[in-house]
Design a protein that fits this description.
- One of its GO terms (cellular component) is ribonucleoprotein complex.
- One of its GO terms (biological process) is translation.
- Belongs to the bacterial ribosomal protein bS18 family.
- By secondary structure, the chain is mainly α.
- It has a domain of 39 residues.
- Helices cover 35% and strands 0% of the residues.
- The chain has three helices and no strands.
- The longest helix has 16 residues.
- It starts with 21 loop residues before the first helix and ends in a 12-residue tail after the last helix.
C-alpha cells in the first residue's frame, strides 16, 4: 500500500486569511471573480474554508465584486 504524501500549503506559515487582505484573496479568484477550487489551489481544508469566508465577507462589504462581466 502506497504511503499518503503530506500536502504542503502554498501559503507561507503564519499567513492569516482575512477579508481585509484583498491582494491575497485575488490570488485565489479566477478572472471572472469565482473562487478557485481546493484541488487547484492545493490549500488545506481549514484554509479553504477560511478563504471562502473571507471572500464572501469582502464581497458583502464591497471590497471585492460578486462577479466580473465578460468583455465583448
Amino acid at each position: 500500500m502506497a504511503k499518503k504524501q503530506k500536502r504542503f500549503s502554498p501559503l507561507k506559515p503564519g499567513t492569516k486569511i482575512q477579508y481585509q487582505n484583498i491582494e491575497l484573496l485575488k490570488d485565489f479568484l479566477t478572472v471572472r471573480g469565482t473562487i478557485i477550487p481546493r484541488r487547484n489551489t492545493r490549500l488545506l481544508v481549514k484554509q479553504q474554508r477560511e478563504l471562502v469566508k473571507a471572500v464572501k465577507r469582502a464581497r458583502i462589504m464591497g471590497l471585492l465584486p460578486f462577479s466580473i462581466a465578460k468583455s465583448k
